[in-house]
Amino acid sequence: MAWWHMSLNKTVFFICVLFIILSVGVHFTPNFSSISIISLLNGASPNYRNPCIDFLHSIEYKNRTECADRPVEKTWSWMQSRPRVATCEFKKLKKPDASVMLNRSWVVFAGDSQTRLGMISLLKLVELPERVRKVREDLAKLHTDYSTFVDSIGMKLDFKWKPYVRRLSKLMLEFKKNKKYPDIIVMGAGLWDMLYENNVSDYDASLRGLRNSLQDLNSKDRRVQPHLFWLGMPTLINSKLKTEEKRHNLTEPRRIRYDNTVNGSKLLNKFGGPCLKLDIQLLSELCGPQCTKDGLHYDEIVYDIAIQIMLNAMLIESTHKTHF
Question: What keywords would UniProt list here (predicted)?
């Protein structure tokens, strides 16, 4: 039922914008000024096959002017200097636009602490600051599930603590068993597999099991299917890791090996799988070592960008479903 509401809201959203375009020319109403209907129509293609998807991670960081009383802050943008990126016309969605997209939807983030940071970034986009602060306080209790409800848009947001890939597979089976499916699922795990188990073969087997469970979840028999995303591991700064165990096990060469295992499992859309990757490794590397205090968890801007990439990808896919 949640998916039906989400699909209906998107349809109404795009029809309204198109009507305004036809009626008054190239101007949008204030609430939707950040979305270009032309880029969305041109970007329509099923299963994330539109070429613009390949350029979603083409971003660049910029430093704000340094002030004596506060540290340098980073901003970011898509690389408009690249003609293809400029043609795609990606937009940073603000609260009104994101709220329309996510109205009456069910969003699940499942995985480790990286995924939890992604959940916070999405919540920041649609919720009041004081509510976000409360959620941060609640999530200080590490290694727990969390659920909240954004009353203003009727959005349910869940975080499922599943730091091992095999636990993600079990979660997908629970959705299937209960016949209740989120509208959006963002997953990510691997750091705990590296840190505590260090068995690439088992990791590969778990990824393939997850891929199979997601393919069942995304059965063509279902009228509407979830948006599926894989939130990748970050660049690891070994010298900043806090414990000897982490410095020994969480190395960049090992991360690369685990990333290659994800690619080989065909979990990702790029390799024929069901998930679009949110490339935290690339986004964190571009931000640089100054963006992390512990060599593992990065500043909020990294996860904010990942959420913007996710929403832009959803707009491309949803436009195809609406207009074709």
Answer: Membrane, Transmembrane, Transmembrane helix
